[in-house]
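To make this tangible, we now present a fold written out as tokens:
***
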Amino acid sequence: MLLIGLTGSLATGKSTVSTLLSQSPYNLPIIDADVLAREVVEPGTPGYNNILKHFQSTTPDLLLQSPNERKGRPLNRAALGRRVFGSTPSRQRDRKILNSIVHPAVRWAIAKSILYHYLCGQWAVVLDIPLLYDSRLDIFAPVVLMVAASPEVQMSRLRIRDPHLSEEEARNRVASQGGVDEKVARTKARGEGRGYMIWNDGSREQLEGQVNEVMNAVERGRRGFWRWALLVLWPMGLLWAGWEVGRGWWERRRWEAHVRAKEE
């Protein structure tokens, strides 16, 4: 089974691409890290309890009022966002704490979902992960699709989508997900057949055309015989998965060495 990593910054159109891939003619299952990130911090979960432990005493509006408080009041995600998004040392520290709570739980949920779809005989699964590179999960995705837009288009879309955000808050949220240029370069560095760019500065029709072109290239040689061979002959499937993870690990090491060389 092929794992397709789908990534992109806020308001670039990644969710639209995810929706397209879930529909005909692709009909791919989507493992959405954002959805899982909400589920693992629902009231009553260990993630929820850990967030309360670290942030409730210093964030008075951390919890929302709810008519059903049997398991606990839901998190006020806007208040939590104001607490962790930004470039000041305190906000960066708080963001690291939050990520240390949420990311391990999300990784475990992703692993369980991958196993489920593998047993269902899917030829491919899309890992919709905004912070694919930052969370170091890119080594598990033999193919990465990176959705990007120009900074002007990105900010315009974000302010329209979330009108309650001030310009500073919008910029802080965009900045918290890292530079687009670096992610674009990193995706291109994966090489032919492993990293694909989808530029979304135009219309919906143009975006659909790019997705169709990319998926035709991704599917070429990856469906049919090999899909069933790797499912039925599971030892071969494990070897193939191990090879791809090792290849991804080596690609990441090579990229990190490239970045260090530029900084020296």
Observations:
- The chain is about 55% helix and 10% strand.
- Strands lie at 2-8, 30-32, 124-128, 143-148, 195-199.
